[in-house]
Design goal:
This protein is α/β, with parallel strands linked by helices. The protein has helices spanning about 20-30, 45-60, 75-85, 110-140, 160-180, 200-210, 215-225, 235-245; strands at about 10-15, 35-40, 65, 90-95, 140-145, 185-190, 255-260. Strands 3-2-1-4-5-6-7 form a 7-stranded parallel β-sheet, with helices on both faces. The structure holds nicotinamide-adenine-dinucleotide (NAD).
């Protein structure tokens, strides 16, 4: 039997960081189902409005755009209030925005630590806190946190990223338990390597340190830890988000779901 998604038509989804990579791909997947979208990401206002207008035209949905900086809780509250005023309360919340910075712990810049914790972890606390009451009132909600394989295991030079991603796995569990009787499911997706701009710097560093081409460095990066010797397509994460929104996934909550090419199976 096919998984039923048609109930997403007319629901309102908010995806942080949906101007690029996994968030943008997820926005397309949800829009295809007729889900209205609050799009968000660091992009000039005019460009973001254009993106929102393109989504509205292509998918016949209502859209809203914000480029609120997630490091600032007040901006998060203001952007969510504006989004809800424009489209109605949020049914599907995808906490996706994130950044990366790699350095060993002794030299890790404090400002990068603070930014990664604020964007990759604390912003999800703020969006969840604001979205949950209306979901509970409607007795339906889906919260999906895009964590990482680094929410389950560690790698060198990623102190802040691993701390934030392990944190979001913990937050996912707590909110899932708290919301279990309110029709809200809360899950974390833990991807391995996904082909997005987030990892460009890591590939470029390997290429320059080892004198490799970009593609050779990319292959080395992937296969160093991930048995599946290829990067995931961002759309595959979007399709997983869609599944978690379906009725078939009603019983999945509080889970940290690896999508990591057997990285954590080792
Ligand atoms: P990306 O760089 O393509 O997109 C990141 C998004 O976050 C962009 O829309 C950007 O504007 C937004 N963003 C960054 N800083 C922000 C800020 N201060 N305020 C508001 N928005 C901000 O990255 P991606 O690979 O699509 O990453 C999406 C999520 O997936 C992240 O949480 C990342 O940690 C996670 N992830 C990525 C991979 C991977 O290999 N690419 C693997 C596992 C998990």
């Amino acid at each position: 039997m096919a998984v039923e998604h048609s109930s997403l038509k007319g629901k309102v989804g908010l995806i942080t960081g949906s101007t690029s990579g996994i968030g943008l791909a997820t926005a397309h997947v949800l829009a295809e189902q007729g889900c209205h979208l609050i799009l968000h990401g660091l992009m000039p206002e005019a460009e973001g409005r254009r993106l929102a207008a393109e989504f509205a035209e292509q998918y016949h949905i209502h859209t809203f755009f914000s480029n609120a900086d997630l490091r600032d809780p007040e901006s998060i509250h203001a952007f969510m209030n504006a989004g809800v005023k424009a489209l109605g309360s949020i049914d599907i919340l995808v906490n996706n925005a994130g950044i990366q910075y790699t350095e060993n712990v002794a030299h890790f810049p404090i400002d990068k630590w603070n930014d990664i914790i604020a964007i990759n972890l604390s912003s999800a606390f703020h969006t969840i806190q604001q979205a949950v009451p209306a979901m509970a009132e409607k007795r339906w909600g889906r919260i999906i946190n895009i964590a990482s394989v680094h929410g389950l295991v560690a790698s060198v030079n990623k102190a802040a990223y691993c701390a934030a991603k392990h944190g979001i796995v913990g937050l996912t569990k707590v909110v899932a338990i708290e919301c279990a009787e309110q029709g809200i499911t809360v899950n974390a997706i833990c991807p391995g390597w996904v082909d997005t701009p987030l990892i460009n710097k890591q590939i470029e560093a390997i290429a320059s340190n080892k004198g490799l081409s970009y593609d050779e460095a990319k292959y080395q990066l992937v296969t160093a830890k991930q048995p599946l010797p290829e990067m995931l397509d961002p759309r595959q994460i979007g399709e997983f988000v869609l599944f978690l929104c379906s009725n078939a996934a009603r019983g999945i909550t509080g889970a940290s779901l690896a999508m990591d090419g057997a990285w954590t199976a080792q």
